[in-house]
Design brief:
The chain is α/β, with parallel strands linked by helices. It folds into two domains: 103 residues, Sandwich (Immunoglobulin-like), CATH 2.60.40; 338 residues, Alpha-Beta Barrel (TIM Barrel). The chain has 13 helices and 23 strands. The strands form six sheets. A seven-stranded antiparallel beta sheet has the order 1-21-20-23-18-17-16, covered by helices on one side. The chain has a six-stranded parallel beta sheet with strand order 11-10-9-6-5-15. This is DUF4038 domain-containing protein. InterPro entries: Apiosidase-like_cat_dom (IPR025277), Collagen-bd_put (IPR024749), GH (IPR017853).
Length: 471
């Protein structure tokens, strides 16, 4: 049965959707930071009180190194207001790391000897060091309800021989001891690297973090188009999997030794969910907003807001426990005083934090938390007629009495009814760009195949979520 857009009527009931800035801010503010756990089924994150925790991350990789106190406040408050709850950040981008105040992190570039001073008074430059500044930002994030997912040392430093097993163990033990009692820490071992590059160092650091810190979750941030599960799924220290779907388009995905999924980041989730024991998994680095396709050539087209939405809904509907957004300019905290930029970065970070993709990410989180969360499972049997692959691919997830189906380009959605409870269902369209629901006037029998026509004409970026609820 073909349903036309002109049969739609906008819902205005309180609580149906967070459409105002005030409501979005309320969503972002809900719940203080505290211990995170894994759900009983091993698929999702939960707070210690049992409430669901949907990971909505941002990559603020160079936050500790490049931002002063005032800028850190601006950035973290912006992310809080936009509904983010996890900030992925490098503790050390390099063994020669220096922060915005000119403080070096290490003695002689040795991770085993952090450069610390007595006291931590900000007004006394002889006391306030690299690690005091990091403490300040971590604590400020906690006040704002934000978790800091911290990479101890970026992978290239280890690969290049600057960190051996003994140094890595000493450093991991020191870090764990310093931050084990803070409420908002998540550890990201690795850092854009394959697990086979310096495998023993990563194993030693992961094991040490777990031995010294029983309070916080640990994963591994891998190289593009790879997943932590390939090397570490059965390690006791790895609480959940993370993959990096990367920044290449379908045609660019040709490198040997990688998973050739192209832009289909949902395939990583499908693979990880087949593993035992079950562990949560998520895309910790998809294509960033405003980064060149393929990463290195600024002459190539840049990824945009519709792309980061697509990666988010594809991976989460496939069973992901959350999603990490990224922006090229923000992840490197690009400033007007910088001499050049990496990866064709444009503009400055404090403007880029308000680009469209960042403003739209909260709608994914809002949608997922709008229905019973822990009963959600991926279910492609809902899609009666798959319109195609790549950008045509439609992906479905459901609970007992609700279902979501995502289309990236607004092509008709054919649904096998009867997959959720009830004799009848009501249907609505959820707008990933605006976070609004629009309900169809008609109620549908919960049987047979029904075809739904999303608003607008079919085109890439005209994305919608079909929402079905038992009636």
């Amino acid at each position: 049965m073909l349903k036309n857009i002109f049969t739609l009527v906008l819902l205005t009931l309180v609580g149906v959707a967070c459409t105002s800035q005030e409501q979005q801010k309320e969503t972002a503010d809900s719940g203080a930071v505290g211990k995170l756990k894994i759900s009983d089924d091993g698929r999702y994150f939960t707070k210690e009180n049992g409430d669901p925790f949907f990971w909505l991350g941002d990559t603020g990789w160079l936050l500790f190194g490049k931002l002063n106190r005032e800028d850190a406040e601006l950035y973290l408050e912006n992310r809080r207001e936009k509904g983010f709850n996890v900030i992925q950040v490098m503790v050390l981008h390099s063994v020669g790391a220096v922060n915005a105040y000119g403080d070096t992190a290490l003695v002689n570039k040795n991770v085993a000897t952090p450069k610390v001073t007595e006291g931590n008074s900000f007004s006394d430059s002889t006391q306030y060091d690299y690690w005091d500044h990091m403490d300040y930002i971590v604590d400020l994030a906690a006040e704002k309800g934000l978790y800091m997912a911290m990479v101890p040392v970026w992978g290239t430093n280890v690969k290049e021989g600057h960190v051996n097993q003994a140094q890595g163990e000493t450093y991991a033990a020191w870090l764990a001891d310093r931050y084990k009692d803070r409420p908002n820490i998540i550890w990201l071992n690795g850092g854009d690297i394959r697990g086979t590059d310096s495998l023993e160092v990563w194993l030693r650091m992961g094991t040490t973090l777990r031995e010294k810190d029983k309070n916080h979750l640990i994963t591994f941030h891998p190289r593009g188009r790879t997943t932590s599960s390939v090397w570490f799924h059965n390690e006791d220290w790895l609480d959940f999997n993370m993959f990096q779907s990367g920044h290449r388009n379908y045609a660019q995905d040709t490198t040997a030794g990688e998973l050739h999924y192209g832009e289909d980041n949902w395939r990583f989730i499908v693979g990880d969910m087949k593993l035992t024991p079950p562990k949560p998994t998520l895309d910790g680095e998809p294509s960033y907003e405003m980064i060149p396709q393929g990463l290195h050539n600024p002459e190539n087209p840049y990824w945009g807001a519709s792309d980061v939405r697509r990666y988010g809904y594809w991976s989460v509907f496939a069973g992901g426990a959350g999603y990490t957004y990224g922006h090229n300019t923000v992840m490197q905290m690009l400033q007007s005083t910088d001499e050049g930029s990496a990866f064709g970065g444009k503009g400055v970070w404090d403007d880029a934090i308000d680009h469209p993709g960042a403003m739209q990410m909260v709608h994914l989180k809002t949608l997922m938390l709008s229905r019973p969360y822990f009963e959600r499972v991926p279910d492609q049997t809902l899609v009666a007629k798959q319109p195609g692959d790549k950008y045509d691919y439609q992906i479905a997830t459901r609970g007992k009495d609700y279902a979501f189906i995502y289309t990236y380009n607004g092509k008709n959605i054919s649904v096998n009814m009867g997959k959720i409870e009830g004799d009848n269902v009501k249907a609505s369209w959820f707008n990933p760009k605006k976070g609004t629901f629009t309900e169809l006037e008609e109620t549908f029998p919960n049987k047979g195949v029904v075809e739904f026509n999303p608003p607008g004409e079919p085109r890439d970026g005209n994305d919608w979520v079909l929402v079905l609820d038992s009636k």
